[in-house]
């Protein structure tokens, strides 16, 4: 059984602007090293994944998505994905944040598994910077 004290080395490639923003956050929050910040980020990612796996049953939800609308072909793919889920998407709101960046808010209602599926499909697209799914159970 592996413990957190058993360390493994990895190598990753990141765009400079992403690494610069990450370093700013690490400095602001007082991390002693990038490694410590990356470990914390991975722990948070795992916690979010576990939370997402508990989204079951009938739910009302909101997806908040930030993406680069200049990314080639992205708008077409996002539209196609949303059209596949017309049975759970109730409404969407699109706003231009800057010349390149947009934010979209999608209101959903339906089976939790289906809500997770659309969020994960949107999240996996190149050019999508962030996707956050928030849900609550529908009480009868």
Automatic annotation (TrEMBL):
Pfam families: NikR_C, RHH_1. GO terms for molecular function: DNA binding; DNA-binding transcription factor activity; nickel cation binding. Gene3D superfamilies: ACT-like. Chain A, domain 2, Met repressor-like. Binds 1 nickel ion per subunit. InterPro entries: Acetolactate_synth/TF_NikR_C, ACT-like_dom_sf, Arc_rbn_hlx_hlx, CopG, CopG/NikR_regulator, Ni_resp_reg_NikR, Ribbon_hlx_hlx, TF_NikR_Ni-bd_C. Ni(2+) binds at residues 83, 94, 96, 102. Keywords: DNA-binding, Metal-binding, Nickel, Transcription, Transcription regulation. The keyword Transcription regulation applies. Its cofactor is Ni(2+). Residues 61-136 form the Transcription factor NikR nickel binding C-terminal domain. Residues 9-48 form the Ribbon-helix-helix protein CopG domain. One of its GO terms (biological process) is response to nickel cation. PANTHER family: NICKEL-RESPONSIVE REGULATOR (PTHR34719:SF2). NCBIfam families: PRK01002.1 (NF002169), PRK02967.1 (NF002815), PRK04460.1 (NF003381). Belongs to the transcriptional regulatory CopG/NikR family. Transcriptional regulator. This is Putative nickel-responsive regulator. The lineage of its organism: Archaea, Methanobacteriati, Methanobacteriota, Stenosarchaea group, Methanomicrobia.
